[in-house]
Amino acid sequence: MAGRNRLPAHPLKGGPRGMPPMREGPYARGPGPLPPHPGLVEEIRDGPFGRGPGPLPPHPALIEEKLAAQHQEIQGLLVENQRLAATHVALRQELASAQQELQHMNHMAANMQADKEHHLRELYDKSMKLEADLRANEPMKAELMQLRADNQKMGAIRQEMTA
């Protein structure tokens, strides 16, 4: 059933379903080439290069005028394209310069931040040292106040003795 309604690849007698055999190769026998379709013949005859009725080609002066206008338009487009290309190059250079400046500024900001952090760390370390020194001096301060109080008592006792 799979091969139903199939024809052999190369029919032995004639073309498919009773048609005449096809010509194959330059020395094959059989009917010659088919004549062109009548619609195509009309199209060729009525076309711009045909001999039959149809529009006449434009006058050469009109063609020259159109070509001159197109040439002028192309020249204008070329000038505009060159201007845009120059602007594009200038903008690319400006962008590269701005990116380089931004990179430099980022580097400078990072250096300033590192310096600031280093300075703050030094100040913090110094304040911690001073605070430790202050705590270490607390007992001495209390002892000094005790000695002053003792000194005043002795001075008062001396005045009593001399008086």
UniProtKB/TrEMBL annotation:
Comp. bias (Low complexity): 20-31
Keyword check for Coiled coil: yes
Segments of this protein annotated with the region Disordered: 1-34
Coiled-coil intervals: 81-115
Keywords assigned: Coiled coil, Developmental protein, Differentiation, Flowering
A GO BP entry: cell differentiation
InterPro entries registered for this protein in UniProt: FLX/FLX-like (IPR040353)
Source superkingdom: Eukaryota
Family: Belongs to the FLX family.
Entry protein name: Uncharacterized protein
